[in-house]
Amino acid sequence: MAEIEEWEWEIDPRYHWFKWELGAIPQYKDLLFRLVRRDLLANYQQTILGPFWILLQPVLTMLLYWVIFGTIVKVSTNGIPPLVFYLSGIICWNFFSDCLSGTMYTFIHNSAVFGKVWFPRLLVPLSVVLAQGVRMLVQLALFFLLYGIFYVRGDVPASGIGWLLLPVVVLWIGLFGLGVGLLLSVLTARYRDLDYSLQFILRLWMFASPVFYPAQLLSGKYGFFLWLNPMTPLIEAFRVFCFRREVDHVGYFWAAGGAVLVVLAMGIAFFKRHEVSVNDIV
Known about the structure:
The protein has one domain. It is globular. By secondary structure, the chain is mainly alpha-helical. It starts with about 30 loop residues before the first helix and ends with a helix. Helix 3 packs antiparallel against helix 10 (about 230-245). Helix content is about 65%, strand content about 0%. It has 11 helices and no strands.
């Protein structure tokens, strides 16, 4: 009997919502590395300060918040030094925002490449998240340095075991940005005018997240809606682990973790469902 050949490729007209083919991604790890390198270099080419913008941007934003919300408006930071309080919220929000903004333009910015060569399309949004993860590590180093200065002054507590959980919080923030970005990447490719409204919504979303104010500042029904925002528990978890604060609303932290997984699964499924047809439109 003739040996049965094993097919490496199978073309099926039916689409399976949960056939994501994630196992093919490790085979393209070299391409993924090059895409990450491209994203890191492209952002700072033809700039005077170059990679120093990674640190300069959060520092300038931190100082602006300190002047406006810490000095003029005098928003409470629950006993945490304002500079490290603002910086913790800024780096968490920037990581989420940059992951979302980078992935939502996947089809628009890479239409020429997608039309010429095949590779797992998920590599592109993954490279964006990994590149932003490198930026996040640099900004975390700045945060730890500033934290150490305030620790020497006795203004913040010593680091505890909670610091070991910070990578989990950072990972969850990145996955949330990836999931939302994957959903929006299909919509922005089909409806270009969504770009303007989404940028506006993203700014409003930042004010609905405890970036420059503690989540405990709002109470009652408004506080309930604030905690429904998945970024609220994630940012608060970062501060709880860093500043060894008491944990409030534990249920919302678990709900935020579940929401991140649901959004990520929906984003991957939606992205895979339309990755071929959207490229024809772009």
